[in-house]
Amino acid sequence: MSVKIEARYRGDDTVELVHGPSGNSMTTDLPVDNGGRGRTFSPTDLLGASLASCILTIMAKAAAKDGLDLSGASISLEKEMQASPRRVGRFRGRLVFPPGLSPAQKEKLKACIRACPVSASLHPDVKVELSLE
């Protein structure tokens, strides 16, 4: 399946993105650590947002197969850049499960961290470190 995404440079270090199927749009900005103003998500911020969203979505699908409700689960993620070459070096954060899950259920859902398509698409040198609660 393919999805069309349109990107247009709008000036002032911003890019407008349009999601083809829905028409929803958003804007990115140049990050502060690269000479910008950081007024909204940077492209690499979106990578972190994609990773967190993907993990929770895949976990929710897996939980639903077992009749579990994952409502309230959350990920707090911090993106760390590296200098040379300039790229994302690590995502570090915390995954909070909703109350009531057994250790075995949590362990099964933990496998979704590496199973989500975004995580599987990351370069192997990009570290993903999530503590689990």
What does this 3D model show about the protein?
The chain has helices at 43-65, 103-110, 112-115, 117-121, and strands at residues 5-11, 14-19, 25-29, 74-82, 87-96, 127-132. By secondary structure, the chain is α+β, with helices and mostly antiparallel strands. The protein folds into 2 domains: 5-34; 43-132, K homology (KH) domain (GMP Synthetase, Chain A, domain 3). The protein has a 3-stranded antiparallel beta sheet, with no helix packed on it. The protein has a 3-stranded mixed beta sheet with strand order 4-5-6, covered by helices on one side. The chain starts with a strand and ends with a strand.
What labels would you give this structure?
4 helices, single chain, globular, three-stranded mixed sheet, 2 domains, GMP Synthetase, Chain A, domain 3, 133 residues, alpha+beta
Quick overview:
The protein is an alpha+beta fold.
What secondary-structure arrangement, pairings included, does this model have?
Blueprint: E1 5-11, E2 14-19, E3 25-29, H1 43-65, E4 74-82, E5 87-96, H2 103-110, H3 112-115, H4 117-121, E6 127-132
Parallel strand pairs: 5-6
Antiparallel strand pairs: 1-2, 2-3, 4-5
